[in-house]
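User: Predict the structure for this protein chain, please.
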Amino acid sequence: MANYLKLMQEIKEEKIRPLYLFYGEETYLLNHALKAIEQVLGTDAAGQIDKQDEDYANKIDRIPFNDLAFSLMTPAFIASKRLIILRRTALFDKTLSDDMLDNLIHLVDATNPYAVLIFVEDKIDKRRKKNLQAVQEKGLLVEFSKEKSDSLKRWGAAFLGREGIKITGDALDSLISRCDNDMLLLRSELEKIALAFKGQNTVINLELLNQIALPDIQGTIFNLTDNIAAKNAQNALMLYHNLIEQRQSPQYILFMVGRHFRQLAVALNCRNVEDVKTKLNVVDFVARKLWQQKRTFSKEQVEAIYLLVADTDYKIKSGQIPEAMGMELLLLQALEPSQMTRSV
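Assistant: Here is the predicted structure, written as structure tokens:
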């Protein structure tokens, strides 16, 4: 098993293996690695002649194993090797039947020095050892996990620096948080900033960022939960409706509230702000806010509200209540300890 840095070192040395399994959340780095392999093989210049890119949308029964094995054994016409990319096969996140496992092994056995087969999965289940072993024996597993916040800060500052733009630390923290540490989304926002301010000798601060960047949903969630702690129903509901006006769905807001209290539960057991930052892989701003906010909620309150979120999510998905009503009821119950206790 390898990470992005090890993989890129091998690609730089033009050591291309016949088989890979790529997986993880960081699609920006994953796509960058795919492009780098294409450049070494020459399939980027050959167009679709020597490249096959299939997305099976996690429908395992759609995979034509025999046809793919035949394609692997077909010589490349222009590129140095044929490239086959298979996306979302669902071959590595569940127990396979004996026949399906045999199909996977047969496909892997068809790999050879004249072709490259790459599986690209959103996630894998590392307990499925037989599935993974089929790949490990002949190829390389590479995990593309989200980059640490400190790395993203250096990358973001350097990106803007090349355009002659400076950004304050709190503004960059906020931007990374808004993008949820996603490099693809972060790059898009950085490019937008670069396009707007290139050559203007501008310093991007938090106030300016609020005018041009994605809405600060996590910041609003912090404010909303601060008002829950203060038992301020009017402000909590106002902030919720502000998010709705920004076209955030009640279901997404529910997810964000649930994630917030899950992070808060971790923060309750941390020693200091740096501990929060390390355990949750969040930027300084978020770590500080969680550390401050943990003083306003007891462990029992955090657990009760998190269970209330789970209960509300179940009721919405099972059709028992509309999602907008469910979110508003959750806020009101979280504001009233007695009702919250009865609910959970």
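The chain has three domains: 4-143, 149-212, 217-343.
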